[in-house]
Amino acid sequence: MIKQKINFSLVLVLLATLTPAAWAAEINAVLEWSDLRKLGTTVSGKISKVMVRPGMKVKKDDALILLDQRNFDVRVQESHAAMDHARLLMEEAQREQDRAIELYDRTVLSDYDRQQADIGLASAKAVFSKAKADYERARLDKEYSQLNAPYDAVVLNVYVAPGEVVVNETESRVMLEIARADEMLVTTTLDGNQIASLENGQKIDAAFREQWIQGEIHSLSMNDKGYQLAVKVAVQPSDNARAGEASAVRLPQ
Asked: What's the half-sphere exposure (Cβ side, CA atoms, 13 Å) at 31?
């Protein structure tokens, strides 16, 4: 009988040694949005289209909001025409300099006239450089007039509507709010002892709808209650995961 008790105790010790995860502490947690972003454009204009509504899922690079394109198209055309004109003037200034060099070498052109040709070409190049920069800026403004999804996302809030005018001269106005559709954060508050053995990037088990899945520690930060642990877990967009859902994490001993 004593021998059986000893053997049973040895089995328990071996199980504890071989399967430490089974004895890890389980801590209640909640789901939070991952990579939460508030988006807006860097240019001003009138909103032409809002393609999304709260709750919708979008793919990376999908169009979300579009400003009226007419003013941006006009600026692109004007700046392109100005750049073409500046290029012609620069090419003519180059020919003038070539002629001035030839005449100067033949000693039929004064030093002053030779320098004027150089100055004319330098000025024409500067005008062309500015015109080219204006054209690139106009193209960028047109590109920024359409707000696209930076990743596969779920739309959380939309703060604008077609017909509204946004003025972003001093600060970009927030137009909508999104988060990742394929990823969530499992968050909980821990004390100093619990967090001692954890580090960013460490693999850790987290619960998602009564199933344990492997996640990765995204961040370890302080708050007024202790230390906040955030574990990044992959989900399917079709799961329709939402912030506030109950979850849990397993802490290694």
From this structure: 23
Q: SS3 sequence, 24-44? A: CEEEEEEEEECCCEEECCCCC
Q: Which of 9-23, 150-164, 213-227 reaches the highest mean pLDDT?
A: 150-164
Is there a contact between 100 and 42 (Cβ–Cβ < 8 Å)?
A: no
131-127-85-81 Cα dihedral, nearest 10 degrees: 10
Whether the per-residue pLDDT at 238 is higher than 80: the answer is yes
Q: How far apart are CA 104 and CA 92, in angstroms?
A: 18
Q: What is the pTM of this model?
A: 0.78
The model's pLDDT over 178-216, given as tens digits with 9 standing for 90+, comes to 999 999 999 999 998 888 889 999 999 999 998 999 999
Q: For 242, which DSSP code?
A: -
| pLDDT for the residue 22 | 46
Q: Give the rounded distance of the alpha carbon of 23 from its chain centre.
A: 40
The structural domains of the chain, with segments of one domain joined by +, span: 20-38+181-251, 70-144
Supply the CATH classification number for the domain 20-38+181-251.
2.40.30.170
Whole-angstrom Cα distance, residue 12 to residue 126?
83
Q: Under a CB-based contact definition with an 8 Å cutoff, are residues 153 and 214 in contact?
A: no
- Cβ–Cβ < 8 Å for 81, 132: no
Helix axes 70-105, 111-144, angle to 10 degrees: 160
Sheet of 37-39: strands edge to edge?
37-39, 176-180, 153-158, 57-58
Structure tokens at 31: 């789901």
CATH number for 70-144 (one of 1.10.10, 4.10.860, 1.10.287, 1.10.260): it is 1.10.287
